[in-house]
Amino acid sequence: MSRAAAGSVAVHQFVPTLNPHDATGTHTLRLRDALRRAGWRSEIFAEAIHDDLAGEAFKHWMYPEHAARGDVAIYQFTTSSPLAAYLSEHRLPLIIAFHNFTGPEHFAGWEPLNVARASRAAEELALLAPQAELGLADSAFNEQELRRAGCRRTVVVPVLADYGRVLGPPDVRVAAELARARATGGADILFVGRVVPSKAQHELVKALWAYRRLYDPRARLHLVGGTSSHEYSKALLGFVRDLGLMGAVRMAGEVSDASLAAHYGAADVYLSLSAHEGFGVPLVEAMVAGVPVVTRAAGAVGDTVGQAGLVLEATDPSYVAAALHRVCTDSTLRAVLRVAGRLRAASLSGDAAAEQLVDAVAGVVGWP
Amino acid sequence: MSETETTLPEDPQAYVAQVMAEIAEEVRLRRASGDLPPKLERELDELFLAHSPVAGRGGDLADALRRVDASTFIDPVVPVESERAAGAFVKKGMRSALLWYVGWVTHQMSQSASAVSRALHIVDDRLTELQRQVDAQRVPPAGVVELPGQYGAEAWWVEPAVAATAKVPGRVLHAACGDGWLVRRIEAAGADAYGVDPRAHLVETAALGALDLRAEGVTEHLRAVAPAGLGAVVLSGVTEGMAGGERGQLLDAIGTRLAPGGTLVVHSATREAWEAADAPPETDLAPGRPLRPEAWCRLLGELGYAAEAQRGPAGTDYLVVAVRAALSTAGTPAAR
Hints:
- The complex is a heterodimer.
- Chain A is α/β, with parallel strands linked by helices.
- Chain A is 44% helix and 16% strand.
- Chain A has helices spanning 23-38, 63-66, 82-90, 112-128, 140-148, 172-183, 201-214, 230-242, 257-266, 281-288, 301-305, 317-329, 331-348, 351-365; strands at residues 11-18, 44-49, 58-59, 72-77, 94-98, 134-137, 154-156, 188-192, 220-224, 249-253, 269-272, 293-296, 310-312.
- In chain A, the strands form two sheets. A seven-stranded parallel sheet of chain A has the order 3-2-1-4-5-6-7, with helices on both faces. A six-stranded parallel sheet of chain A has the order 10-9-8-11-12-13, with helices on both faces.
- Chain B folds into three domains: 12-49; 68-136; 158-324, Vaccinia Virus protein VP39 (Rossmann fold, 3-Layer(aba) Sandwich).
- Chain B is built from twelve helices and seven strands.
- Chain B starts with 11 loop residues before the first helix and ends in a 12-residue tail after the last strand.
């Protein structure tokens, strides 16, 4: 990283937390590279930086050392953060890259701290959106929220994700363990996402219970993802235990890329019944991996999946179970969804998305 | 689940649309066969809610206050156990060094929480007293009262009621549905119907079959239905014993849940039949008395319905069919 050369235009990014394995972290790093390739100076400033990325970003309070006249800020808006007030006070020309955040209503009754945090995020969006020169949304759903918050100019551009990680070499040990389970028969249903109320893993458990009762008594549900709601995780475990599904619901927790690839490789169907999704990177990962997608039409899911999955209007267990059964037994349907999924994923990934983002930024600040 | 080479259909999207329709049909057939009764699906929800910290525990204020009291004290003495040998020693040192500061902060927080808790207890006491006073003046809700000979598939009013709900813009709700005899009849005529009835013993026996029947009161149920979510509401054995306030609440709820162009069908015993010597004792105990059909037509007309009444051949009951106008004033207190 180099110190800013006085007088030259820079497009810097600000992000609450820079993590190596999450969608926002990957997006931020890839956008930084795309901006540099286009000729701008570009650094990342974060409130918190993961140790593995210590050389890739600066703490946000170090920005004044790098500041130069004409700087433009892109704020990766994912949650409540002191960065919102910081950017509002500094009055830099601002572009909001809005990835959405889980609304307080989804935490109500579960995690009081998250309710407060989500409420603050809504206030921060209302503060920054009217000040922004441009809002970058990764779905039409998010674009509408930006507009509602007061952003005057918006554009929908796909998130820059590393979908290829699901096609990498799978973790041999995990793959063997999953293969042993498959050998006993029954479908493998996969969901990837944090264990939080808005992801509605309990709806997945209900669907599994109905699917096993009506169609496939040996089916398994794999829940991949760490938790950020202790109360919800506890309730989910109790629910699984009450339904006698301890052996059928496998909670893998947070996993490596290789383990994730093994899970996608072993899945018969990817099922999401989330109540809220700002984009849904795992939906695209499933499509990249050739796993048919069954999902609930909630938040941005419809925009992300398009016509490449079975998008359900209801989450009644019997309805979801019937959809799972059809996907697992109809080879024509599986082929249709796999082909459509790969086409859809291709349209959301690759260099085209980076170029769209760079074009959108240039439309506001001019080319370097 | 392995796949071989599969030929894609000519129009993949049309195929997916066809699959979605077939899934919906599969669900309908499964439900009709009783493989997974709606009641069982609702029990799944309740089972999960029982594990949630707040949502599943209902509105028991005393229980909530006990939990507030239990969490009021904030302990400044943090645990010092550690898996590492020196960890506990370091933590203990930090705790000793910081205890005065942390204790000062937590003491204030505990005091603040205690003050809030005390205020909540005062509110609880006053609410309890208020509840006692309200209970003393409470008008009991009318139960379902069915006079003999007026119900069943052979009753004179069933055909006109079924005809009135045949082409409505949404689901048809029957209250009080009993074992679902009219729901079955309306479904046979091609409409999508379900029923509610507070008499759980009748509903739960019937719900083991294919019908969507729910053990709850009609007004309580309507409050949970989405606005304009129903095509028709059929009331039988429900309104006769209602006092004016309860009837007003029911009509308010129907007014907002019925879609424009929807239909309200009211079957009622006449006042003469209600007060006859052979009427069941529930009629004496009910807080209200049946309206005359003219009164229903007048009331529903004021609420924006076009209502017509038909009298039964024996003079013991009547039927009112009211169609809600597209732009209705239904539900406004002033109109009632």
